[in-house]
Amino acid sequence: MKLSYRSLALLVTVLLVSSFNVVAFAGEIGLEEAIAVGLNHNSDILDLQDNLESIERELKQLKAEDNWQLDLTVDGYANELNFDDESSDVEFSITGSRTYWWGLTLESELYGAGNYSTEEELSNDETGLKLSLSQNLYPSIPTEREQSYINKELDLQVAQKQLEEEKEAKIITWLGDYLNLLRLKEKQELAVQQNELALNNFKEVSAKQEINEASEIDILTAQIEVQQAQYSLKEAANNYQQAKKSFYSQLKLNIEDELLLNEDSDYLLMIKDLARAKELDLENKSRLLDLGIANSVEIFESCLEQQSKKDDLKWNKDDDKPDIDLTGSYDSNKQWGVGVSLSYNIFDSGKQRLTEEALQAELATLKRKYDDLITDLSLELDQLIDQLKLNENSLKAKELSLAKASLEAKIAKEQLKRGLIDDFELKEKELSLKEAKINYNGVEDSLLVNKLELIKFLGKVDFRGGNQIEKRD
């Protein structure tokens, strides 16, 4: 069954209408703004932000617990089981305590007791103020809450680094996705042009067949080319739409917004300039690895974990030493005193030794994990360098293909002037040149992303303030 030109044109029109999801009067959003939206709404980043804020709240809570704590106690009771007797006794106390992290503990008590049934008895009440203090002299061991605070501060540093690292990784990933989306749109536009060329060719061959200047094979060949062009157009449109949906989902963009795909975006040009400005000696791997280790979030976290475990070991050893405290007390009833207390656990059934062995084993495990992280970083560096070199080689190959396609298009123009080829063949060469250019740009995009990943691995740039990238000194 033969397809008429009008039927094919109608089919293509329906295909294009169904493939393109254009929203009238939709808001426009550029790359920089899109990344800013993504950094403020991406689920992975928000989870890390929530974790950071949770640690900050816990630190504030630990601080608050070491401020003055006040308790009020009031007891009232009858002297005898005589309900006609209105006399009663009341006791009350207001106690306060505070522990300072340098080892000082303060306790105070305002107390009172008496029978308050008459005014005379009210004047005979017993009230007073007690004060006591205890200052740790030796050994100097942080309080339990202070130890928790120190460990939480280490957790906070890790959480901050993780959030910064995730933002940097997302920005680079989204840049790659944006460039891929740009190339997919170009491929879709190219597919539209190829489809139009195939339809026009089918129309011309059909016209020639009517005057017996084209054979059945010619018409079938043209028909096959139309079918292939339509399939390529639909595939290109689907690829573009799927990539666009994924990009919108990752950055939490509104579906009504129309993303501007602009290769000359100021933000994109700034990033390209940044990448070009960074000279990397790929042969000096030891230097690059040192930079990667210094910048690694995992290494940073491992070092803090080891430091935390060393602190636990030190505190455990100090806890086994004799405890010497300076004490003092004061009572408003003219009683006061100062003294020194000594306490020492002479036998704990080996508890302290077992705790120390467990901590030593945990520290040894952390050191092994640290060594494994170094090995993993070395492998990651090899992969980044290898991928960068592969893309550089691929770019050279695409550059040759682009030069060849450009030369073929130039020759085709001369051949058309001489009548050696027709207009259809020239347009085929011109579309092949566009395709070669798209392929070249695609590899160039991959090379840019690879270099950004390597720069990030080495800690050569800071991605600060959300979507603002600054050079690191």
TrEMBL record:
UniProt signal peptide: none
Lineage: Bacteria, Bacillati, Bacillota, Clostridia, Halanaerobiales
The entry's keywords: Cell outer membrane, Coiled coil, Membrane, Transmembrane, Transmembrane beta strand, Transport
Pfam families in UniProt: OEP
GO molecular function, one term: porin activity
Localization in the cell: Cell outer membrane
Residue ranges that the Swiss-Prot or TrEMBL entry lists as coiled coil: 356-446
Protein name in UniProt: Outer membrane protein TolC
InterPro entries: OMP_efflux, TolC-like
GO CC field: cell outer membrane; efflux pump complex
Protein family according to the UniProt entry: Belongs to the outer membrane factor (OMF) (TC 1.B.17) family.
